[in-house]
Amino acid sequence: MTRWQWLLAQFTRRLWVRSALFSLLGALTALVAIWLKPFIPPAVSVRIGADAVDNVLGIMASSMLAVTTFSLGAMVSAYAAAATGVTPRATMLLLQDTKAQNALSTFIGAFLFSIVGIVALSTGVYGGEGRAVLFIATIAVIALVVVTLLRWIEYLSRLGRLGETTRRVEEAAAEALRERRRKPHLGALPPPAGGLPEGVPILASETGYLQHLDVAALDKLAQAAGGRIDVLVLPGAFVARESILARSSRRLEEEQLGAVQKAFSIGDMRSFDQDPRFGLSVLAEIASRALSPAVNDPGTAIDVIGRAVRILSIWAGEGADEQPVYRHVTVPGLDEHDLLDDVFTPLARDGAALVEVGIRVQKALAILAAAGSGRLTPAALRHAELAAARAVAALAFEPDRRAVVELSARVRAAAKLGD
Fold first, then answer.
1. Element (H, E) at 225
2. What is the pTM of this model?
3. Which long-range contacts (CB under 8 A, 24 or more apart) does 221-225 make?
4. 34 burial level (CB within 10 Å; 0-12, 13-18, 19+)
5. 249-304: per-residue pLDDT in tens?
6. Measured distance CA(319)–CA(180) in Å, rounded
């Protein structure tokens, strides 16, 4: 995905954009009757009274305004509940939820349709045939609103809830990791062997998180310069102003250097799109909040462990990597130790005093140690030992400590069986 495609995707995920499009569609639907009235037989228009459409549109306008206000309040309450009960980082996914945006946009579009229809009726531009077209359009809009409202009521029962929000985070992390599994280096070449590459440093123009990397643009610029660009940071990394983002094997002109810097989209928050580790970190935040003394909900932490195993199994799965498309750029790959650090270090730390969490962590790591191609095996063994050591230090009951240590030994056995 290029930088402009990514910016367009970010733009279209905003609520007001979808609402504006639906509002425009509603207004155009009300006005289209003016152009269609010549095609309506006079016999049809006679059967529709002048007040029929006016009354229906008035009822729809008042009801849609109330429904829109209620829906906005429900969405704000759900976002607040997710921020306080789950984690503030998860609200980003809720704000981009297309189902909620479509429902609210439909209500706003129906409201605008009613208002424009009432205003046009008061001016008399429709005529008898135009009223017939508007009446048919009104019936269609009412049917759409009823279906949307029924689905919206059912959806509101889940919006902002812990399980629903956690599921959304899992889906976002799994999708990002699945895409990275197909393109381990974002479609570019792996870094050259032999340590850090030499070349002209390319510095960051601002401080923040690297949200998106336009590898296609970098490849085009490197090809034009007759050299190679070695990227040193991955999306999700926090970079400071004038820190080194990449190195170019050829010296770049000032204009080319500025274009290279624009390929690194830096913002104040991490993004789920090219950063699968962000999803794992958010899941770990959910588990840590659940394991806090104020909440004391180990069941949620155990649920997060299962979701983490499903996500990481994607990375451990078998399958051939796609051939590099951009051969003038190198991008580092994900580190398996970092992937497990993001989720299992907080879980093992905050759940060390709970034997049920410690047992589930060891069972999860045993699965990952034996999964797929074995690329997660060294990291799983390391985390199994660390989690066991934390549990032994925190658990007071000897049988509990022994149970965790025995399961840690099974992780090593599972790793050998996988080999």
1. helix 215-225
2. 0.85
3. 221/252, 221/256, 221/259, 221/260, 221/263, 222/248, 222/250, 222/328, 222/329, 223/328, 224/256, 225/250, 225/252, 225/256
4. middle
5. 888 888 888 999 999 999 999 999 899 999 999 999 999 999 999 899 999 999 99
6. 12
